[in-house]
Amino acid sequence: MSLVDKTAAELQEMIHTKETTIAEMTQQAFDRIEALEPKVDAFLALNKERATEQAAEMDKVPFAERGPLFGLPIGVKDNIVTEGLETTASSRILEGFNPIYNATVVEKLKEAGMVTVGKLNMDEFAMGSSNENSYYKKTKNPWDLETVPGGSSGGSAAAVAAGEVPFTLGSDTGGSIRQPAAFCGVVGMKPTYGRVSRFGLIAYASSLDQIGPITRTVKDNALLLNAISGHDDKDSTSANVEVPDFAAALTGDITGLRIGVPKEYFGEGVGEAAKQAALDALKVLEERGAICEEISLPHSKYALATYYLLASSEASSNLSRFDGIRYGYRTEKAGSLLEFYMNTRSEGFGDEVKRRIMLGTYALSSGYYDAYYKKAQKVRTLIKKDFDDAFEKYDVIIGPTTPTPAFKIGEIIDDPLTMYANDILTIPVNLAGVPAISVPCGFDNGLPLGLQIIGKYFDEETVYRVADVFEQATDFHKKTPQTWEGAAK
Amino acid sequence: MAKMTKEEVIEVAHLARLAITDEEAEHFADQLEAITNAMELLNELDTENVEPTTHVLQMVNVLREDKSIPGLDRELMLKNVKEHEGGQVKVPTILE
User: Fold this and answer.
1) pLDDT tens-digit readout, A96-112
2) What are the residues facing A170 on neighbouring strands?
3) pLDDT exceeding 90 applies to what percent of chain A?
4) A487: pLDDT strictly greater than 80
5) Computed over its alpha carbons, how large is the radius of gyration of chain B?
6) Residue A398: which pLDDT band, with cuts at 50, 70 and 90?
7) Which phi and psi (to 5°) does residue A417 adopt?
8) Checking DSSP bridges between strand A43-46 and strand B84-85, what pairing results, if any?
């Protein structure tokens, strides 16, 4: 009996028919993690003892009291705080940090009865597109262990692709859920800004960050978003809007749906394979009754510069809290208070984090504030307006998630601008704040490609409906990577 | 817009409380110069009459009733503190 290719509904069915128990399933998840980690390196801290205890208790709960995700294993990105379980955001500066409370999403996972099995590797403080910026390890792409899983939620995407866990949480500031989901051939959703509480998410760029689910299927993704969504008094930026049942939105009917296809997402800098796979996907949706029309999001090319100015500025402010006084890494070498701060931060942060802190500090410094920070905020208005205008006529906007499939480890790590270009198709979405999903839509030389479906504010339902229709019509999500062969059952 | 020079990198690093060596400053200056050059693209756009966006959703102040509520337990709060004594955070002796 293998659990790795099962959906939530199938796993529940197996529990109901006594084919397995929650305790057994949890044990299997850990066995599989143990067998695959030497290859994939997706996990940081594991929660084995507590998860095992919790699972045994949960088997005693009557079926009538269980929801659709009850007892199922989940991994959590390491920038989401988990009480009593080491949380580092993959940074040396938080080595050994043991949170004293849970993020709201972690509390919600508990309410849904999910079993947190461990924390997932990422680019340090969510800054990066390859997971190579982790202080602790480099996660590998299960489809080709010499390539990157994407980032920054690379561990979260790789763990699902490898079948280590069926569910994970990631976070997305400029593409950090969707790009690794595309690279690893899994489903990743960045919800509308404000849909999910950020309380307990270690802040990178507060006006852009959003937590979201990574899964193998669209339906499971919708179920997990159901569990984590909702207004939270502890996050003043969480939206007080009704949360629909996202899974109920999967009606299979997209007749008459209007799809805008931005020409800029099929232009310069986007590879042929990615373009072709997206065009083929659009044909599939047309055959199911959707209407596709070319549109323009004219300010797309300005998104990357806008994003790096705004995100770095917010990061430089957010990361000023790491000073070595109350928690985290502390330098051994300090003759003065200033040296104490400077050495602690220099030894504790990696290069990409330092680069962005410096860029942000520069953009916010007097004399440059108007030219950089304020300018970027104004361009953000124009980018947002592109989407507002398009959504007056169209229900969703569709294109490739990334310009290329996954690249080799070490290939572009020394070239920040080329690395940043990975996110040209995902960044505009964060700047506008709208929701978007990546679903598997093809392969290029054996590496997965993703289709990005972008929706209106708080209309994740339509996004999921379209994604589900595409998934039902294709079998890309059923393909499995090489790491599955010979792995523990 | 101006490009970031090595001197500016050193100054900015100081403002951000990051110790960097001369060699690192040079390396970061090369990279940050390329990055800030790429940001110049925004100058193409006339944004004279455009309002800045700080947040995509309408934000309102969130207020609560002004009454005292218990905070976190002190023992718990000190859990991640490297050194503490008598309920207070200990820092290295520093004379300035």
Assistant:
1) 999 999 999 999 999 99
2) A212
3) 93
4) no
5) 23
6) very high
7) -65, -40
8) unpaired
The ipTM assigned to this model is 0.94
Closest residue to A334, CB basis, from B42, B79, B92: B92
pLDDT at site A488 = 46
For chains A and B, CB pairs below 8 A equal: 155
Alpha-helical runs (H) found in A288-422 = 303-318, 337-348, 351-364, 375-393, 416-420
Which residue is associated with the tokens 């920040």?
A: A416
Which positions in chain A touch B76 (Cβ < 8 Å)? 100
Catalytic positions of A are 77, 152, 176
**Residue A29, H or E segment:** helix A22-40
pLDDT band at A489 (very low <50, low <70, confident <90, very high): very low
Residues of chain B neighbouring A375 (CB-CB closer than 8 A) = 42-43, 47
> Best residue in B53, B61, B74, B91 to probe A by mutation, most A CBs within 10 Å?
B53
Q: How far apart are CA B46 and CA B56, in angstroms?
A: 21
Judged by DSSP in three states, A68 sits in: coil
What does the DSSP assignment read for A440-485?
EEEEETTEEEEEEEEE-TT-HHHHHHHHHHHHHH--GGG---GGGT
- The total number of residues shown for chain B amounts to 96
Q: Give the Å distances, CA to CA, from A384 to A131, A205, A295, A402.
A: 29, 17, 15, 20
Question: CA–CA separation, A418 vs A413, rounded Å?
Answer: 9
Is the CB of A368 less than 8 angstroms away from the CB of B1?
A: yes
Q: Is the pLDDT of residue B1 over 80?
A: no
* CA–CA min distance B70, chain A (Å): 15
Beta bridge partners, A43, equal: A120
Instruction: Give the integer Cα–Cα distance in Å for A62 and A65.
Output: 6
Q: Beta strand A436-444 with A447-455: parallel, antiparallel or unpaired?
A: antiparallel
A441-452 tens-digit pLDDT: 999 999 999 999
Q: How far is A335 from chain B (nearest CA, A)?
A: 7
Query: Of A67, A90, A175, nearest to A454 (Cα)?
Result: A175
pLDDT tens-digit map of A220-264: 999 999 999 999 999 999 999 999 999 999 999 999 999 999 999
Identify which of B4, B51, B62 has the shortest CB distance to residue A362: B4
Under an 8 A CB cutoff, do A378 and B52 touch? yes
Residue-wise pLDDT tens digits, A171-189:
999 999 999 999 999 999 9
Subunit contact B52:A343, Cβ cutoff 8 A:
no
CA distances, B72 to each of A195, A256, A381, B75 (Å): 27, 54, 40, 9
